[in-house]
């Protein structure tokens, strides 16, 4: 990229207000063709609002947006796409009941009343091969793994003709070995002259892929770096305005906790569901006061193991035990009410209800504790008090507003709501799917400390993560899944990244 090149897209003094709340304040930003520009900041720093203003989802309250040096008004996402701006949201915008190919056809700018699917498929396949974005186009989206859905979203944006690509936490759904493949996609796009805006909380990724960095704090630009002058410590200091938190580390097991089995799968077999994987003769137990990590490449049975424990999948064979009782025939509601909590892998689709605000979502499943007069009246002051206490005591930065609709929250803030709700109920068994997903540095560490606190209080935690460092730092034991089978069951002193990676990919 030439240092004298003019910005492809630029903001000058961009400000966005929601009532009295200022989400963005006087943002100056320049995006160049053939460049990866990383946007960093804490949860609630204004990153998503800024990106949505660039895409046309929000209208700026003040300031201007320039495209190729000329002021433009981006009145809607459709107008944004017509100007060549595309966005891959953290929460995907796909129709689950339709095939991948049909979802793409719906998004094409030149779509006609009568579609010729072979022609569309040929266009998609050519683009998928060029950028390494393989997707089974004839499968329904509802049966695709999350990683495949993200690749489909990227293909949609590219086929719409976008030249400015906004990626919101693009690697949050990828296994470690898939991240390098994504980086290769980005490098090819960059070489082809695409301008790429990259929102992430993973500093190693920023250092590996970004050319330029802009840091937001409390809705304003806190600072900017060229990658050659940036260091992780300087970035974190700028993001937080203070020294970074100490990383969570597991300590020796508390010998004062009685070791008993809290949850168990005995020789469990589960039939594949909607493109998932079959579980075969799974033996798994979770003890009080321990964290059991689950490692595996995405789509190798992680979701099925959790769903089998939660009663969301029928068992073809074997038994399920919860708190010392056989629970093979228990419905999911009974299991959940038996001191079992879950941080799901998709906070918006699986952990919250659209159209309800934060306070309402914080009491899901426990509404009866806040009713009066036989259920005719809700104790809303009590709801707000409990929700505020849970949110303020479990995380490191300012909590989201209780009256905000959950679908309007950033991915990180929504994740905080779900984690606070589930952990705040003091469960004996906690299933945590990728709990740091979408969280900034401070809140990710606060979340990990929460899991260790649950463990120290005697809970059993089943931790699903694709971050090897996180698994090694927090787990007492580690199981490795491959094609629906447990191929490794390791004690802490046996943890080794090379060995675990070998097992994850089918090695003996």
Write structural notes for this entry.
The chain has about 500 residues and is an alpha/beta fold. The protein has helices spanning about 45-55, 75-80, 100-105, 115-130, 145-160, 175-190, 205-210, 230-240, 300-310, 330-335, 345-350, 360, 380-395, 410-425, 440-455, 470-475, 495-505; strands at about 10-20, 20-30, 35-40, 60-65, 70, 85-90, 165-170, 195-200, 210-215, 220-225, 260-270, 280-285, 290-295, 315-320, 325, 340-345, 370, 375-380, 430-435, 460-465, 475-480, 485-490. The chain has three domains: about 10-240, Rossmann fold, CATH 3.40.50.300; about 260-340 and about 425-508, 3-Layer(aba) Sandwich (Rossmann fold); about 355-425, no CATH class. It is built from 17 helices and 22 strands. The strands form five sheets. The chain has a six-stranded mixed sheet, with helices on both faces. A six-stranded mixed sheet has the order 16-19-20-13-21-22, with helices on both faces. The longest helix is centred in the middle third of the chain and has 16 residues, at about 175-190. It is globular, with a radius of gyration of 23 Å. The two termini are about 45 Å apart. About 45% of the residues are buried.
């Amino acid at each position: 990229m030439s240092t004298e090149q003019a910005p492809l897209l630029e903001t000058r003094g961009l400000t966005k207000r929601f009532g009295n709340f200022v989400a963005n304040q006087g943002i100056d930003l320049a995006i160049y063709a053939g460049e990866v520009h990383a946007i960093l900041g804490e949860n609630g720093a204004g990153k998503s609002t800024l990106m949505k203003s660039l895409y046309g989802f929000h209208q700026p309250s003040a300031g201007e947006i320039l495209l190729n040096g000329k002021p433009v008004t981006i009145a809607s996402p459709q107008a944004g796409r017509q100007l060549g701006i595309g966005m891959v949201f953290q929460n995907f915008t796909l129709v689950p009941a339709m095939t991948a190919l049909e979802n793409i056809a719906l998004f094409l700018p030149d779509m006609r009343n009568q579609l010729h699917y072979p022609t569309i498929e040929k266009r998609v396949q050519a683009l998928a091969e060029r950028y390494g974005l393989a997707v089974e186009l004839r499968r329904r989206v509802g049966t695709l793994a999350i990683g495949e859905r993200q690749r489909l979203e990227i293909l949609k944006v590219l086929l719409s003709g976008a030249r400015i690509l906004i990626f919101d936490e693009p690697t949050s759904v990828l296994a470690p070995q898939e991240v390098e493949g994504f980086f290769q996609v980005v490098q090819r796009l960059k070489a082809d002259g695409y301008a790429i805006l990259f929102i992430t909380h993973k500093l190693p990724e920023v250092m590996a892929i970004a050319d330029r960095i802009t840091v937001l704090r409390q809705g304003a630009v806190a600072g900017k770096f060229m990658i050659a002058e940036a260091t992780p410590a300087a970035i974190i200091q700028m993001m937080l305005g203070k020294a970074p938190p100490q990383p969570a580390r597991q300590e020796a097991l508390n010998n004062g906790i009685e070791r008993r089995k809290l949850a168990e799968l005995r020789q469990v077999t589960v039939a594949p569901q909607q493109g998932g994987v079959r579980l075969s003769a799974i033996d798994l137990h979770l003890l009080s006061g321990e964290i059991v990590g689950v490692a595996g490449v995405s789509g190798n049975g992680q979701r099925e193991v959790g769903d089998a424990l939660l009663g969301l999948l029928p068992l073809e064979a074997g038994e399920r035990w919860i708190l010392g009782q056989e629970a093979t025939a228990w419905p999911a509601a009974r299991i959940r009410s038996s001191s079992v909590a879950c941080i799901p892998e998709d906070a918006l689709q699986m952990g919250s209800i659209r159209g309800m605000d934060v306070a309402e979502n914080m009491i899901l499943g426990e509404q009866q504790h806040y009713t009066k007069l036989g259920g005719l009246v809700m104790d809303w002051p009590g709801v707000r008090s409990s929700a505020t206490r849970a949110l303020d005591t479990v995380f490191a930065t300012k909590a989201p507003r209780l009256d905000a609709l959950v679908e309007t929250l950033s991915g990180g803030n929504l994740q905080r709501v779900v984690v606070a709700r589930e952990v705040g109920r003091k469960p004996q068994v906690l299933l945590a799917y990728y709990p740091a997903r979408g969280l900034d540095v401070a809140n990710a560490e606060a979340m990990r400390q929460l899991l260790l606190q649950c463990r120290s209080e005697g809970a059993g935690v089943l931790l699903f993560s694709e971050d090897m460092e996180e698994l090694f730092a927090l787990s007492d034991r580690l199981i490795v899944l491959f094609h629906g089978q447990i191929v490794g069951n390791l004690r802490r002193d046996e943890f080794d990244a090379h060995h675990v990676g070998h097992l994850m990919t089918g090695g003996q």
